[in-house]
Amino acid sequence: MPYSQFTTIRKAKEAFNLTTIEGNRFLPAVDAIAPSDVLAGTLNETLPIVATSGSEKARSEGIIYPVLLEVRRILDRKISLFSGEEFTIEEAVGLNGLCDFLLTRSTEVLEIEAPTVVIVEAKKTDLKTGFGQCIAEMVGAQRFNQTKEKVISTIYGSVSNGIQWQFLKLEQQTVTIGLTVYPLPPVDQILSFFVWMMQEG
User: Distances in Å between the alpha carbon of 39 and those of 2, 46, 68?
Assistant: First the structure.
């Protein structure tokens, strides 16, 4: 059974013996980052179409992917972005299947290399439906890093429908779920959070 079997937070917690903490915000106050003309132009075209009735695929391709690509651009392409890649870690416990988006602190783009830092799960509407799957993928990233002996203290996650974003973090066996929902537009704060997560630690 793949990551998608974890349809609730409870299922992920029980499967991987996790503790969850809910809070308004764990991300630091960081300066907003203005988008490039490229991203601003893309969002100007896609937001009116996707935000009203776009499918999950349209939201992923029209909003989420361009935002994450901008993060890679801001960081001078010293990180890698993977979209819809197979990420099988431990199939026996359900850590297998496709990740919508995955960011690594590696410059290699042909294959996923450790350390994996951020997992982004795309949803069409209700963000809550993506939390369990995102948490499972974060556990997969944590274990992947361990097998590659590139352990980092925190794995970050985000569940987004393009116009709303929520953030999570995994430290050892504890998942912190930020209850704040960040809107897009504006994209500036979203960009700053992802840049911080990729540089932190």
Answer: 33, 10, 10
